[in-house]
Amino acid sequence: MALQNARIDQLPQNGQIPSLAYVAIMNMDNTITERLELSKILPTITSQNFEWVVTNEYGIDEVVTYSGKWYQSLITANEGNVPGIDILIWEEINVNTGGGIPIWESGFYVADEVIVAKAIDDEMYLFRLSIDESRPFESIDFEVELAAVKWKQIGGPETREVNTAPSTINFNCAGIKELLLIGNAPIDENKTFSFTNAFPNTLRLPFIKFLITDTPVTFTFDASFKMSDPKWNNVTWEWTTEEDGIYIMSLTFDWINMQHIVTINGPFI
Q: Is the same domain home to 259 and 176?
């Protein structure tokens, strides 16, 4: 089938990485452009042996593989019990063993190098599981793990956790052009926001997530911050909400007027 000539930015956008996809490569042995299956780019690599051994004693929650399936021990001192026989001793589990770039799902990840695709606010991003996390790694709540920097975004804004417990919340941007910031504690009192190593070096904070649990709550900014929102007081530079829930704040630096433009969306219950 003939394909219409098009630049990459003119091609239709795919919302997720399919189970079977190809990329084009140049084979320098024959100078022919060939296709390569995407799953071949990231082979399964694990330095640990999870194969079940009949003489080993396994503790509760330990993970093994047997006959091509994966199991988690439900008891302590688990020795000599063949996985897959008694569901009260071994539970079959979902395990990602690496290879390709899967869509994130809860379960265990055992490969040394783990990269997943995950949609955030309808945009698809790639994330890498921190090498500091022991394998197997049980992933349950991606956003909580992202806030704890267990997952790190690839090729995009850096994700950092922000301490939202103090009365003054400081965002240390470290001069990075784009940051995704996630609060680590619910907000149940008035807060003052401050920024260090930030604008104009940091051009954009597209995603600052926080949870408000005891309204009304007022956020206070300095005079350089502007907002178009009924909850905003442009005299005191304060934003007040009377609804609990999750809020997403974004900031952009206006170079012309040298101002910080703030947008707060929510609550997301």
A: yes
Q: Are 117 and 101 in contact (CB under 8 A)?
A: yes
Most confident of 5-14, 60-69, 97-106, 191-200: 60-69
28: in domain? no
CA nearest to 160, candidates 181, 177, 175: 181
Position 133 scores a pLDDT of 93
Residues 141 and 232 in one domain: no
Q: Is the pTM of this model over 0.85?
A: no
The residue from 139, 156, 173 where one domain ends is 156
Q: Do 135 and 109 meet the contact criterion of CB atoms below 8 Å apart?
A: yes
CB atoms within 10 A of CB 193: 19
Q: Provide mean pLDDT across the span 209-238.
A: 91
pLDDT surpassing 80 at residue 211:
yes
Tell me the C-alpha distance between 16 and 18, whole Å: 6
Chain segment 141-164, per-residue pLDDT in tens = 887 787 677 888 776 666 778 888
Domain region containing 234: 158-268
Residue 178 lies in a domain: yes
Cα dist. 153→114, 116, 187, 225 in Å? Answer: 12, 10, 25, 28
Cα–Cα separations (whole angstroms), residue 119 to 50, 84, 208: 30, 34, 16
The count of C-alpha atoms lying within 13 angstroms of the C-alpha of 222, restricted to the half-sphere facing its C-beta, is: 10
Q: Is 168 exposed, middle or buried (0-12, 13-18, 19+ CB in 10 A)?
A: exposed
